[in-house]
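Hi everyone, sorry if this is the wrong subforum. Our group has a chain we'd like a structural model of before ordering constructs, and none of us has done structure prediction before. Sequence below.
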Amino acid sequence: MYVYILTNTSRTVLYIGVTNDLTRRLYEHSTGRGDANKFTGRYQADLLVYFEQLPDAGQAIAREKVLKGWSRAKKDALVTAFNPEWKTIDLDTWDG
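Answer:
Right subforum, don't worry. Here is the predicted structure as tokens:
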């Protein structure tokens, strides 16, 4: 299970999600780009900048809730510690 954070090109929004298949979920976000009925589509948030793997769904959902409760500054600090330049993460080449 994964908890992940997406942003848009201008880094003005953050989207936090949870999934059991990060590659598939990123594809779904990218194909929904521009869909005004969905947060990631409305704000063009489809750039992966952070993720963490957790052992099971319960822990992943709990972690997602914790992160969603954080201030923007605390979320920014988490992403910066993991990905200092906020580069878009390509799961095929990411070496963390």
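For your construct planning: Helices lie at 22-31, 39-42, 57-68, 72-82. The chain has a mean pLDDT of 90.
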